[in-house]
């Protein structure tokens, strides 16, 4: 893409950010493996910039068994120790443990709903992405009543690092909401 291409302002000149913005952010995701990947990555991002996580994404993929939810759910204390010594990821004990806990809960939701995707998309009217009409980035919310509702339900189920702001970021990343600017090339 050329520099004259109009993008959301957060998609800086960093090629990693531009690729993520153009190819992933806001695109509907129904695949449980990708939804699990974003669950891990969004939890790791709490309190940090998204580019920090994007730059470590491949390291997360290796550290968390290719985002295989069953393998992550089976991680032991030895795995936690390995992860806490892995300089390629964010070495926060609470975040590492929450990823394992969330993997177990993710599987419970898959059993209950048939897939995590069915669970998540059941919150969205008609199961279709919400098309927000964003004219400037300051119009993008950090949370909504819907992210409040999803986050509350997930917290009730025991999920960690999935407050309403992280939930909304997950919704954006997985295309449950489209918050691209109206004039953005990726809209």
Automatic annotation (TrEMBL):
- Superkingdom, natural source: Bacteria
Instruction: Work out whether the entry's keyword set contains DNA repair.
Output: yes
Tell me the residue numbers annotated for binding Zn(2+). Answer: 8, 21, 180, 184
E.C. no:
3.2.2.20
Q: What GO molecular function annotations does the UniProt record carry, in alphabetical order? A: DNA-3-methyladenine glycosylase activity; metal ion binding
Q: Which Pfam families match?
A: Adenine_glyco
The answer on whether this UniProt entry bears the keyword Calcium reads no
Q: What does this protein do?
A: Hydrolysis of the deoxyribose N-glycosidic bond to excise 3-methyladenine from the damaged DNA polymer formed by alkylation lesions.
**Protein name per UniProt:** DNA-3-methyladenine glycosylase I
């Amino acid at each position: 893409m050329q520099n004259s291409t109009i993008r959301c302002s957060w998609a800086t000149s960093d090629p990693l950010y531009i690729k993520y913005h153009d190819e992933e952010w806001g695109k509907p995701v129904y695949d449980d493996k990708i939804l699990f990947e974003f669950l891990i990555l969004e939890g790791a991002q709490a309190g940090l910039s998204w580019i920090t996580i994007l730059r470590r994404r491949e390291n997360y993929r290796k550290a968390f068994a290719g985002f295989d939810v069953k393998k992550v759910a089976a991680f032991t204390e030895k795995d936690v120790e390995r992860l806490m010594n892995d300089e390629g990821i964010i070495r926060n004990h609470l975040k590492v443990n929450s990823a394992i806990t969330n993997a177990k809960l993710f599987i419970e939701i898959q059993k209950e709903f048939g897939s995590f995707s069915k669970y998540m998309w059941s919150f969205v009217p008609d199961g279709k992405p919400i098309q927000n009409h964003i004219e400037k980035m300051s119009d993008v919310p950090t949370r909504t009543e819907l992210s409040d509702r999803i986050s509350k339900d997930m917290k009730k189920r025991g999920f960690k690092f999935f407050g309403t702001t992280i939930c909304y970021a997950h919704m954006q990343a997985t295309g449950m909401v489209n918050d691209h600017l109206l004039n953005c090339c990726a809209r």
